[in-house]
Write a structure and sequence with these properties.
220 residues, endonuclease activity, nuclease, globular, two-stranded parallel ribbon, 2 domains, tt1808, chain A, hydrolase, alpha+beta
């Protein structure tokens, strides 16, 4: 006997395009690449924490045109004029047509020249204004900025200050160091946690000294 089982899965209507939220590729190929992605993404989140209309994302698929399957997943991207919040992908037509204006890619051993050239053409075509490629193995940074309808290489890139982000790039013997607009270098999550612990420790010492003097720090 054949039993027909109903299913809640309905076929996709003809003409409706599905936009996957993953390209099936890992976020990073190694720990060094991953560390750099996290460093840049988290520090940019901190930089724009008080600006509700700057969206920062890492490894998020960006679809620039509705009805087309073309997409890229920048290691880090920054969108100005769009609210913060979780997204499964960045569908530009649902974001007032606003593209990411700053993009970072961290080179891994698996990246090919053809792949990176394809990314460059994609970002150039769809409105990226600043594009930075960093190779942590070689300590090399290549930056490009929008000049008319193309992305032109920044020369020299050492000491360059991003027009959009206000951050400064410095290359030295140990590779790339990025500085916030206030001159503070980008810190790793571990360094940020240690700094917070040190600050909290100093506060506790100060509170203890005030109590020794008969002063309640809670009422100051």
């Amino acid at each position: 006997m054949v039993v027909q089982v109903e299913t809640s899965i309905k076929p996709e209507p003809i003409g409706v395009r599905i936009y996957p939220e993953s390209d099936g590729q890992p976020m990073a190929d190694n720990t060094k690449q991953f560390r750099w992605i996290v460093l840049i993404k988290e520090n940019l989140e901190i930089l724009f924490a008080e600006n509700a209309d700057v969206f920062v994302a890492g490894d998020l698929l960006w679809y620039p045109v509705e009805g087309m399957g073309r997409c890229q997943a920048p290691d880090v991207m920054v969108v100005f004029g769009r609210p913060k919040g979780d997204r499964g992908s960045y569908k530009q037509w649902e974001e007032n047509g606003i593209p990411p204006l700053v993009v970072f890619e961290i080179i891994s051993p698996s990246n090919t020249v053809a792949e990176m050239s394809k990314k460059m053409l994609f970002y150039q075509e769809y409105g990226v204004e600043e594009y930075y490629i960093y190779d942590p193995e070689k300590g090399e940074l290549v930056g490009s900025v929008s000049r008319g309808d193309r992305l032109a290489e920044i020369e020299p890139v050492n000491g360059w200050v991003s027009p959009r982000l206000g951050v400064r790039f410095e290359l030295g013997e140990n590779g790339l160091v990025i500085y916030h607009p206030d001159g503070e270098r980008f810190l790793s999550p571990v360094e940020l946690a240690r700094r917070r612990e040190q600050a909290e420790g100093r506060v506790k010492i100060l509170e203890a000294k005030l109590r020794e003097l008969g002063i309640d720090p809670e009422v100051i």
